[in-house]
Amino acid sequence: MKITIPAAVRHSFGPIALLALAFSASPPSALGQFVPPPPARPFPGFANEKLRADNVYMSAWDIGVNYRIRSEDKLGAGFTDAGSNWDFSQRRIDDNNNRYLLSRVMPRVAYAGKRFAFTVEGRASSSIGDERFNATAAGKGLTENDSGIDVHQAFLFIGNHKEFPVSLKIGRQELVYGDQRLVGHFRWNNNARTFDALKVRWQNPIFGVDLFTGGVVYNDSRNLNKLNSQDHFSGAYFNFPTALKNEITEAYFLARNVERGIATDNWIGIPAPARFPGAQDIYTAGIRVKSKPNAYDPIDYGVEVMCQFGNRTAVFPATTVAAALAAPRLEHRALATVLQAGYTWTENTRQPRLALIYSFGSGDKSATDTKSGTFQNLFPTNHLFYGYMDLNSLQNLHDLRLAYTIKPTPTSMIALEGHSHFLNRATDFWYNVAGVPRNVTTAAVGSGASYRINPNYGKHVGNELDLVTGWTFRPYAQIEAAACHYFRGSYIKESLAAVGSKDASYFYVQLTLNL
What we know:
The chain has 515 residues and is mainly beta. Helices cover 7% and strands 43% of the residues. It has four helices and 20 strands. Strand 13 and strand 14 form a beta hairpin.
């Protein structure tokens, strides 16, 4: 595990690091998130159902395929040919509309024995009609298209926690922790996310910990997907099942260490925003507490606090190699917090639920000093949290979210959500869902010609309204659809005052088949 913490940082943040080493892995929470309902009865897939009916010993095997197709329509902002720098612009030259079709096939073969298991899962992702296509750009500009079929997961698991507290998981695998605000599989994206990693778990009824080290897998349209040996991700994720009677209690310590030489690697097959990251040694210590299901009858709550320290360079996908190699190291200190509470009318058969969630990610005080205060979002599944239009990440952000869900039938759900977004600091950028700043360097500060750091502009980015519905209409089939609209705030209007701005909308329809 590559965790090399400078002495000065160890001295300043030692108590925080020690605190993080005092609480682990639990299933992702649905608190405040839209989670389509499962089928009325579990469905193993057609192949599994047939094989297990003929041979009871085939229950140890899992052979199947997941197929998903989604139509998306972006109007005025989002993943468009214009790029996020021209989100909400009303100029015709800034083509910020995009309608495209995504499809993904994920075949798998898995086996689970008493002390041994393995999984091999492929993935073929494609996009049709995506205006982000650029024949000469890295990865042809298609962030959700991965040519041919590639390996999504291929791991070996050894252990049995009923017999012995230690297990080992090695190979290409998904890492999912907490609510996926920092580490998630990002399956909403057509390419999803995996890591080539080694994970050791210790778990008993009182205490558990995941220790892992490895690196994120980069999707390369020209080659087999693989990790980059200069991008290291390690961590320790702790849990105490019995620490609190009515709460799930977790803590973690995560380290991302990226070497400066990564800028000179070949990135021609990897599109933005997943191109080379800036050199960094970022450490994240956090605590997460949430109520157990039904612990407080209709009321639930959750709290998560994240503290970052270390150093980083201000390098982004558009940065030149020369600039990335010369970029100075900035002392990094940042903070993020999530507070959430919900109320479910449990006696109502439709299970209506109202949730209020506040998310905060710190911003930078000054772009001209040698310090960095912008929280780094690491490897999240941001689609779940800050609006389904995917315009924000947990960086320089206040997000106030009100969510109402109801189940008209046991296999359907409707969610109505509202978000109000504010910048934490006007001395920092507005970051897109991938953590890239909206920054048009040719626009003079305060000119209203486009986004950049404009300290005198208002902090209110805007309000988002989302209507989402899901229906599992067959044990193996699920349909999901959404209609979303974004109302501009003062920050967007002032940033685009000279070119003109407009509100934005987003629609999608998705079909998922588990065969």
